[in-house]
């Protein structure tokens, strides 16, 4: 995104500010679709990565469905005009009311809990569900991202299969799909292939009503030049080959489902902040900015690296800086980062800000969440206004405590 365009958007909307490149999202969808050589592919965007309804609508425009993990994401997708038939619900530990909402609204349900499966099988005769399994594959860019590991809370375990089979047989449950999700930010293609081989073996247990095999998402993106993102050509080729072979053995066509989130929106996002102060110590120079982990938690939560660009002084002499936020908390975006000379008032842009940033934001320290702008088709569109104090106080109930 060119600096002139960014400057115009910043002038209009101020900072802190999220900006998303819609054309980049479209390109990411097309690139991902091209590596899976099958017309049976369904892409369901994991909207927890970036849950703005306008982003959901845009990605649906590009031919994708939605993968939701809460009743609120389902409701948001429906209100965005996404047909229920193109929404998956993949919860873990959610209340039964959320499962019922999905079933009552004809949203495809993925379930990973035998107890809930039995309750729903009793309530919904002929229940049709996909089952989420734990593939026992430990992989991810951080320990908190290893959701397919054998000690994870996610997915049905092999030892649960006898109980699951009993429920299926006793209540006539129709298993329409099998699903797993290995983790997030995974570079090694072998993990995805191994997990899909596991899914094929599980699929053989439920051949009668099977309609889909869902391998989840978690593909690694490039945060810095030295990073090696997932080789999607290799993943697509290997999974498609396994999928076609299984369909041939089964004797009918199934749907191959993937659930990318970060890989569709991460590199399409930019987070713009302004430098509010500088402090020189005998260790390093600190640049303070008008945001914190309340808006951009990944560096603090995942030790994540995000490239930082000095929009105001791109040709300045590089110096090492600690870039810190404005929260009353340890709040560091970069510890010792070489950046073009920073001055008070400069605008900094954090790259790869499209995924797990705004959707994980909060009002910590009673700081309002920033605005979001979508750039697409020669238009700059405000898709979420910045919060005000009134927005934050609105849900509070004022009581008489005198």
Give a quick summary of the entry:
With 402 residues, the protein is of the alpha/beta class.
Summarize the helices and strands and which ones pair or pack:
Blueprint: H1 3-13, E1 17-21, H2 22-35, E2 41-46, H3 53-61, E3 65-68, H4 71-79, E4 87-89, H5 96-104, E5 108-111, H6 114-123, E6 128-132, H7 161-171, E7 174-179, H8 189-203, E8 212-214, H9 232-250, E9 255-258, H10 262-265, E10 269-280, E11 285-289, H11 298-301, E12 308-310, E13 318-324, E14 332-340, E15 347-350, E16 371-376, E17 379-384, H12 389-393
Parallel strand pairs: 1-16, 2-3, 2-9, 3-4, 4-5, 5-6, 6-7, 7-8, 8-9, 11-13
Antiparallel strand pairs: 1-10, 10-11, 10-15, 12-15, 13-14, 16-17
Helix pairs in contact: 6-7, 8-9
Q: Per the principal axes of the C-alpha atoms, what is the gross shape?
A: globular
Assembly category: single chain
H/E series:
HEHEHEHEHEHEHEHEHEHEEHEEEEEEH
Q: In which range does the helix fraction lie?
A: 25-40%
The number of helical elements comes to 12
Structure classification: alpha/beta
Mean pLDDT across the residues is 92
| Amino- and carboxy-terminal Cα gap | 55 Å
Report the radius of gyration as a whole number of Å.
23 Å
Strand content: 15-25%
Low-confidence stretches: 138-148
The tally of beta strands, per DSSP, is 17
Taking the sheet with the most strands, its summary is: 9 strands, mixed
């Amino acid at each position: 995104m060119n600096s002139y365009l960014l400057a115009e958007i910043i002038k209009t909307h101020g900072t802190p500010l999220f900006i998303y490149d819609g054309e980049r999202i479209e390109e990411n969808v097309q690139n991902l679709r091209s590596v899976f050589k099958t017309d049976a592919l369904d892409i369901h965007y994991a909207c927890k990565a970036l849950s703005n309804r306008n982003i959901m609508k845009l990605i649906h425009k590009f031919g994708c469905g939605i993968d939701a993990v809460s009743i609120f994401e389902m409701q948001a997708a429906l209100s965005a005009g996404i047909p229920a038939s193109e929404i998956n619900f993949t919860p873990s530990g959610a209340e039964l009311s959320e499962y019922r909402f999905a079933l009552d609204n004809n949203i495809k349900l993925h379930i990973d809990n035998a107890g809930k499966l039995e309750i729903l099988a009793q309530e919904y005769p002929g229940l049709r569900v996909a089952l989420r399994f734990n593939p026992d594959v430990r992989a991810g860019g951080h320990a908190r991202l290893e959701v397919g590991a054998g000690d994870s809370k996610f997915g049905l375990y092999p030892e649960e299969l006898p109980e699951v089979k009993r429920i299926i047989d006793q209540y006539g449950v129709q298993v329409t799909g099998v699903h797993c999700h290995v983790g997030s930010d995974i570079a090694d293609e072998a993990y995805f292939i191994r997990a899909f081989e596991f899914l094929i073996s599980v699929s053989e247990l439920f051949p009668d009503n099977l309609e889909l095999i869902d391998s989840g998402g978690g593909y690694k993106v490039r945060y810095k030049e030295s990073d090696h993102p997932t080789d999607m050509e290799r993943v697509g080729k290997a999974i498609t080959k396994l999928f076609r072979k299984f369909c041939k053995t089964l004797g009918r066509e199934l749907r191959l489902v993937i659930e990318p989130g970060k890989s569709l929106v991460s590199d399409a996002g930019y987070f713009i902040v302004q430098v509010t102060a500088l402090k020189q110590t005998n260790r390093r120079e600190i640049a303070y900015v008008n945001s914190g982990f309340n808006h951009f938690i990944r560096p603090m939560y995942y030790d994540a690296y995000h490239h930082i660009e000095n929009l105001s002084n791109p040709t300045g002499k590089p110096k090492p800086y600690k870039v810190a936020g404005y929260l009353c908390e340890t709040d560091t975006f970069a510890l010792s980062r070489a950046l073009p000379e920073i001055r008070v008032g400069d605008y900094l842009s954090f790259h790869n800000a499209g995924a797990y940033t705004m959707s994980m934001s909060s009002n910590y320290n009673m700081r309002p969440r920033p605005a979001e702008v979508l750039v697409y088709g020669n238009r700059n569109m405000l898709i979420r206004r910045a919060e005000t104090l009134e927005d934050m106080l609105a849900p509070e109930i004022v009581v008489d405590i005198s």
